[in-house]
Design goal:
By secondary structure, the protein is α/β, with parallel strands linked by helices. The chain is about 45% helix and about 20% strand. Helix 7 runs antiparallel to helix 9, helix 7 runs parallel beside helix 11 and helix 12 packs antiparallel against helix 13. The longest helix has 21 residues.
């Protein structure tokens, strides 16, 4: 098995190090000081489950790597459409692409035989078909990340919690390529269940992301602060309720209670969401996949979602003005 990690940041380098430890041929594609450190010292993982160092090949040139069996995408979803030149050298006839992204993926309505929206393109995450042109639907393996990591320093990954990477085919089949990938991930010390319908995991994780990410960026509050403020907790609950209604209208029925989901987020403590971290770092905000696509699916399924629409309007304006400034 040969795997390229395109965008070997905090999550990508952690996954690559784990797979390399399992004996998989891994190629990390990164840049800057992080790449230089991984080339010289390998990937150093600091984890409550045990520290380790792995030394997979690291490069900034996909042409050095060539065709692989799997590409693990560690890029932000908004970078997919512009990643064609990086991806092209890695893609053979049967290369699968694991999109470890937050929110709604570009392939969401692909493979849903018999569903009224089967094949429907979601403009928020596939504008004008630009992502599908780079990442054809048949290559996609869904992936939902339940793992928290950060780059402590170049080449050093701090693993905070979680090791689960749920994967699944858009057409709900249990494919040999998913089974083989799962076995390799498990051999590397990760959890990697192959789900019959990974969309349920997408919505369960999205219930938290769709509420806490934009609200944290708008208020600069941590997750526990949002949960402990009565009115903002109520706002989170309303956004989650609308999200569940949209999921069910789109053909998925996540089995999770809103109170349980909020309480789980509260236990994370004084954690800044990725969107708040990106805002503070002056980076582009990942709003299209996390909330914009949900609002679009609400429109497609004719589900009223006033709270989501209002929060989306506010975070979209913040995203535009923060980029200008």
């Amino acid at each position: 098995m040969k795997i390229a990690v395109l965008g070997a940041g905090a999550i990508g380098a952690y996954v690559g190090a784990a797979l390399h430890r399992a004996g998989v041929e891994v190629h990390l594609i990164a840049r800057g000081a992080h790449l230089a450190a991984m080339r010289e010292h390998g990937v150093r993982v600091l984890s409550p489950r045990g520290d380790f160092t792995a030394r997979p090949h690291a490069t900034d040139s996909p042409s050095e790597v060539g065709e692989v069996d799997y590409v693990f995408l560690g890029l932000k979803a908004y970078s997919y459409a512009s990643s064609g030149d990086l991806l092209k050298p890695l893609l053979g006839p049967d290369t699968a692409v694991i999109a470890a992204q937050n929110g709604i993926p570009w392939w969401y309505f692909h493979g849903m035989a018999g569903h009224p929206l089967e094949g429907q393109r979601i403009e928020a995450v596939d504008p004008g078909g630009s992502v599908t042109a780079v990442l054809p639907m048949e290559r996609a393996i869904g992936c939902v990340v339940y793992c928290s990591t950060e780059i402590e320093s170049p080449g050093v990954i701090r693993h905070l919690e979680g090791t689960r990477f749920s994967i699944g085919e858009p057409d709900r089949s249990i494919s040999p390529r998913c089974v083989a990938l799962s076995e390799a991930m498990i051999a590397g010390g990760l959890k990697c269940p192959v789900e019959k319908d990974v969309r349920e995991d997408i919505w369960i994780k999205l219930m938290g992301n769709v509420a806490f990410n934009p609200l944290s960026a708008l208020t600069r509050a941590t997750m526990v602060e949002i949960c402990d403020h009565t009115d903002s907790r109520d706002l989170v609950a309303q956004m989650m309720a609308e999200t569940l209604t949209i999921a069910r209208a789109a053909g998925c029925d996540p089995q999770i209670s809103i109170d349980k989901r909020i309480d789980g987020a509260r236990r994370v403590g004084h954690h800044k969401t990725s969107m708040l971290q990106d805002l503070e770092a002056g980076k582009r905000l990942e709003i299209d996949a996390i909330i914009g696509a949900v609002v679009e699916i609400a429109e497609l399924t004719r589900v009223p979602a006033p709270t989501l629409r209002h929060v989306y309007a506010a975070i979209d304006l913040l995203s535009r003005t923060s980029l200008v400034s």
